[in-house]
Amino acid sequence: MLDFxxxxxxxxxxxxxxxxxxxxxxxxxxxxxxxxxxxxVQAMNGRWEHAAVAVFxxxxxxxxxxxxxxxxxxxxxxxxxxxxxxxxxxxxVAPALIMYVFALKGLGKFGWIAAFVYCAGAALRLAxxxxxxxxxxxxxFQGLPxxxxxxxxxxxxxxxVEYGFSGPExxxxxxxxxxFSGISMVTNFKFYSGKEINLRKSVPFFVVxxxxxxxxxxxxxxxxxLLLIFVLYGLSGYAYALWNWTHRKEKKPARLPDxxx
Length: 261
Known about the structure:
Strand order of the largest sheet: 1-2
Number of strands: 2
CATH architecture: Up-down Bundle
Structural class: mainly alpha
CATH class: Mainly Alpha
């Protein structure tokens, strides 16, 4: 016999437990969102080092949430949407506000326009990434990833503070850094993604030594080393495009004189 105890709306609407969310990966995402918000608060209070470090913490947490979701089989549409929103705060709004309050405020209209270019670039970069997720080459990012752009901006502020430079002293250099980061996010240049690296596979012993060396280098002078790493990564997309362009020209067959075949 048919059971007519449930109404049509109850049948059509999924139960709450069917619409539940996974805690583990979203916990990392919320942590990244908190770090981004914390960096904004610290920048408003003039604590530049804390603001910069918070951006790097957000970047680490953002890198973990996706990998944890894939490794534990807890990927979801909700997690993907939450991750995009958190990325916009942590890697779009936060770096723009940090740089504006630190150095660009004294430049007047040009200062806030430069900060907005970065913020808009991050939004466009995230929107393009979400729409091309199924068709994009997994080995490369199209445009500079927003976490790397944020690390470039935050690392620059951190180094300037470390060496005793005030924001107004490096205002024009700061505007160049944030414009470069913002524009790089919306270019078509390819940046290596590292997604093909399988953490479950065994690796040679020297790889472990390289990881140890990396942590030693970072611990000796975090701001300088981290900034150098992300400057090189930010330039890698342009270098790769230049390398492809030069090799494409070399591969073009030479044109024969008229009448020859």
